[in-house]
Amino acid sequence: MSLFEHSLRELKDKLHSKEINVTDLVNESYNRIEEVDEQVKAFLTLNKEAALKQAAELDEARGDDAAKLFGLPIGVKDNIVTKGLRTTAASQFLDNFEDPLYNATVVNKLNEAKSVTIGKLNMDEFAMGSSNENSSYYATRNPWNTDYVPGGSSGGSAASVAAGEVPFSLGSDTGGSIRQPAAFCGVVGLKPTYGRVSRFGLIAFASSLDQIGPITRSVEDNAYLLETIAGYDNMDSTSANVEVPSYTDALTGDVKGLKIAVPKEYLGEGVAPEVKEAVQAALKKYEELGATWDEVSLPHSKYAVATYYLLSSSEASANLARFDGVRYGKRTENAETMLDMFKRSRSEGFGNEVKRRIMLGTFALSSGYYDAYYKKAQQVRTLIKNDFEKVLEDYDVIVGPTTPTPAFKVGEKIDDPLTMYANDILTIPVNLAGVPGISVPCGFSSDGLPIGLQIIGRHFDECSVYRAAHAYEQATDFHKQRPSLGGAR
Amino acid sequence: MSRISKEEVKHVAHLARLSIKEEEADLFTKQLDDIITYAEQLNELDTEGVEPTTHVLDLQNVMRKDEPKKWIEKEDALKNAPDHQGGQYKVPSILE
User: Fold this and answer.
1) With A98 labelled, which of A155, A293, A384, A484 sits at a CA distance of 20 to 30 A?
2) In this structure, what DSSP letter does residue A370 have?
3) Is A297 on the interface with B (CB under 8 A)?
């Protein structure tokens, strides 16, 4: 059995009692990566030499193992900046960005908690995509069936955990990029409330939507990791100065009296029958556990995808202006002028999806179109946000599927941007509203692919989301299933 | 009716500092036109008087004193640069 079958807290206990040492855990990661990553392709860069050195040092300092993540091996999405460790956001533009100058705040927090960074995880370029096929290196595959996508953009973060390469990882979520791959790969992924986790050092895609969050095998591990990375940061003026509660204390297993809202729009047209059945079975389980649910409406849901693509692309067009080939990254050969250098460096460094979104955003922000597209989308965002706030006045959580379908096949949707975008229809509204959402495993399709249950809560009420997710998880065993990749672990 | 012409796509690419080839311009025009057409469903909604949301939280401006402080050394700032000379970033000529 893999050591990573144990929870993070169990691993800490085993380290403390000297049953295992940190080097064992780090070796477990690299051995598994060697065994399966040729198929899964979850990692872009490995940190092996430094990680093994750090493991040896931590093993020397075993008396001092109180730190929250002492010796635990973690994978980090490649759009999170790591000092001295190559950070590419899966873009050719940053292919040569070998030596970043500082750590993202979340990475500093991981270091303070003494986790060991195993490597950087594959993703869609600059987090733009839902299948990892937009990685400029190679597409990560779904560990449950490598003909299928792992989801995206945090595909590497979810696949690495599902494949047992690391026990936990960090992803980022702008329109579903943690929850959708977590659902497709059968693991637990949380997008925290906007502002809950510092974005300092997260390569910005859409700054009013981006959040970093944990991907884990269990809800308990997820809550444990969020406790470590959440909190106010004076380097991110959009991080919220709100106290971080004990999320693990919220895992009581008790959901008696919990009031659940089920939006009819989330079980409507376009949602696969197998997914509906899995969600309905989950609601039945909640009833057995003493919770109640009612059907509600989030009437503006169908406008979320259009709103999201206008707003996120507009923000991206501004954020990605920093990639100019001057201070770091790609520089074209033999440019005659500065303007020519900018244009050619960017065109050679960016993939088509990134170019498409930069152009869409530039268009939506350009004079003559600003009011019709950008401002209109901001107004519809208000309506979508109000939908959530209204429902959450009367209910503790909102429950529905994470995605309309299980994972799709590699190549199936990549040629049609709109079909790909529609895949995020149930996760995007959560980012627009800024509320927290989690995906937990709730079943399998007839093809043996995981299905995810999405649980959404009020601003800064991750406790209720975790409590509801944990009680359901403990009453089911979907999270205990493992892909048979390279021999079951 | 198309929402965006090929000429507009080329103009937008210029504004975004992207150079696109002729055949790319054809593909992007088609795809952007599809996306913009899709986005126009927002016009079904009456948003007269609705406040635009720029941010979901009730954020305050964060002010601090504008004081110089040590961040990174010059040589570190230059080490990822594609080209530099004499302690400065080097770029092609700015004037055409």
Assistant:
1) A155
2) I
3) no
State the virtual CA torsion across A154, A172, B13, A414 in degrees, nearest 10: 20
Q: Answer whether residue B96 shows pLDDT above 70.
A: no
Using a CB–CB cutoff of 8 Å, tell me whether A235 touches chain B: no
- Inform me whether the C-beta atom of residue A456 falls under 8 Å from chain B C-beta atoms: no
> Nearest C-alpha of chain A: how many angstroms from B27?
10
pTM for this model (two decimals): 0.97
Tell me what ipTM this predicted complex has: 0.95
Which residue is it, tokens 């720029």?
B54
Q: Is the Cβ pair B51, A382 closer than 8 Å?
A: yes
Q: How far is B88 from chain A (nearest CA, A)?
A: 10
What confidence tier does A421 reach under pLDDT thresholds 50, 70, 90? confident
> Is A153 annotated in the active site?
yes
- pLDDT tens per residue across span A431-472: 999 999 999 999 999 999 999 999 999 999 999 999 999 999
Nearest by Cα to A466 from A476, A478, A457, A475: A457
Residue A237 touches partner B, C-beta closer than 8 Å: yes
A356 touches chain B (CB under 8 A): yes
Q: Is residue A269 predicted with pLDDT exceeding 80?
A: yes
CA distance B76 to chain A (A): 7
Say yes or no for a CB contact (<8 Å) between B92 and A237. Answer: no
* DSSP assignment string, A90-128: T-GGGTT----SS--HHHHHHHHTT-EEEEEE--SGGG-
A341 versus A61: the higher-pLDDT residue is A341
- Tokens representing residue B92 in the block: 């092609």
Q: Which of A55-59, A64-68, A147-151 has the lowest mean pLDDT?
A: A64-68
Distance CA A148, CA A151 (A): 9
Residue-wise pLDDT tens digits, A223-262: 999 999 999 999 999 999 999 999 999 999 999 999 999 9
Question: What is the pLDDT averaged over residues B31-38?
Answer: 95
Judged against a pLDDT cut of 70, whether residue B31 lies above it is answered with yes
Residues 6 or more apart whose Cβ sits within 8 Å of residue A13: none
The confidence score (pLDDT) of residue A489 equals 46
Contact B16 A380 (CB under 8 A): no
Q: Which residues, in sequence order, are CB contacts of A419 under 8 Å at separation 6+? A: A413
| Cβ-nearest to A358 among B16, B36, B50 | B16
Tell me how close the Cα of B34 comes to any Cα of chain A, in angstroms.
8
Q: Which residue among A91, A169, A177, A218 is the active-site one?
A: A177
- For chain B, give the longest Cα–Cα distance: 58
Residues of chain A contacting residue B41, judged by C-beta atoms under 8 Å apart: 302-303, 306
Contact call for B45 and A303, based on CB within 8 A: yes
Query: How do residues A370-407 score in pLDDT, each as one tens digit?
Result: 999 999 999 999 999 999 999 999 999 999 999 999 99
Strand partners for A437: A191, A456
